[in-house]
Amino acid sequence: MRSHNVPVPGASPLRPVSDLEVARRCVSGDRNAQREFFQRERHRVHAILYRIVGSNSDMEDLVQDAFIQIFRSMASFRGEASLATWLDRVAVRTAYSYLTKRRNEAVRLTVVPEPVSTEPGADQRLITREATRRLYAALDKLPAPQRVAFTLHVVDGRTLKDVALAMSATVAATKVRVWRAWKAVHGAARRDPLIAELLGTDKGE
Q1: Alpha-carbon distance 3 to 146, whole Å?
Q2: Residues 50-68: pLDDT tens digits?
Q3: What local confidence, expressed as pLDDT, does residue 8 receive?
Q4: Which of 65, 86, 90, 149 would suit a FRET pair with 163, their CA atoms being 20 to 30 Å apart?
Q5: pLDDT at res. 30
Q6: 125: part of which helix (H) or strand (E)?
Q7: Among 153, 164, 166, 162, which Cα is nearest to 199's?
Q8: Digit-coded pLDDT (tens) for 97-115
Q9: Helix (H, G, I), strand (E, B) or coil at 112
Q10: Which helix (H) or strand (E) holds 77?
Q11: Residue that wins the pLDDT comparison between 75 and 5
């Protein structure tokens, strides 16, 4: 008698669910699929928003807004790019919209106080947090396209090509945005040694 655990010769191996199938299930209103998709991709969307916006009191609302847009527009996903790339674009648009609306306001970063610690490296972590806070305060002064391009390329470490795809822009335009952002950030680094140290520059030189 053949064991059910023994693979049948010539049988096709189980294939992962395709991006289009995932999108189809979510668009059809499959609550389980939507819930699983949210749990699977929440970290990715949160990470993009966090890199662009910083540690912000509106972060959870932004994540929710991003997924509302994701589920509303998922029917338009045709598979020309990967689902991950498509998600990045929606998250970037969400962050871009947020920054644009707040352009005339000061975007307040929420710095969560760390408990006093005697562990090795605790002081350095506090310095890094403060340096990061100051960097994002400098980024608040940039136009949204420059900030998005800079944070995705420099902070998140994505290639210019990947950033261009996420922003639905050309590589040339993305390169210009990053360069202009670097110019402004270098100016801030020359005035603030903490930012210079965080970015690994010699006071922006």
Answers
A1: 61
A2: 999 987 778 899 999 999 9
A3: 36
A4: 65
A5: 92
A6: helix 122-139
A7: 153
A8: 998 887 645 444 444 444 4
A9: coil
A10: none
A11: 75
- How far apart CA 148 and CA 49 sit, in angstroms, is 10
Asked if 53 contacts 95 with a C-beta cutoff of 8 angstroms, the reply is yes
Cβ 107 vs Cβ 59: under 8 Å: no
Tokens coding 59: 């972060």
Closest CA to 164 of 101, 89, 67, 97: 89
Amino acid at 56: N
| Dihedral Cα 89, 95, 98, 102, nearest 10 deg | -130
* 3 state SS of 90: helix
Is 167 within 8 Å of 144 (Cβ atoms)? no
Set out the domains of the chain in order of their start, with CATH numbers. 18-110 (1.10.1740.10), 115-205 (1.10.10.10)
CB burial of residue 202 (10 Å; 0-12, 13-18, 19+): exposed
Please tell me whether residue 101 adopts helix, strand or coil conformation. helix
Minimal CA–CA distance to 155: which of 105, 88, 200? 200
Question: How many secondary structure helices (H) and strands (E) does the chain include?
Answer: 9, 0
pTM of the model: 0.75
User: What's the pLDDT band for 153 if we cut at 50, 70, 90?
Assistant: very high
The tally of CA atoms less than 13 A away on the side-chain side of residue 76 is: 9
**Rounded-to-10 torsion of CA 65, 137, 112, 193:** 150
Question: Which tens digits make up the pLDDT trace of 188-204?
Answer: 999 999 999 988 865 44
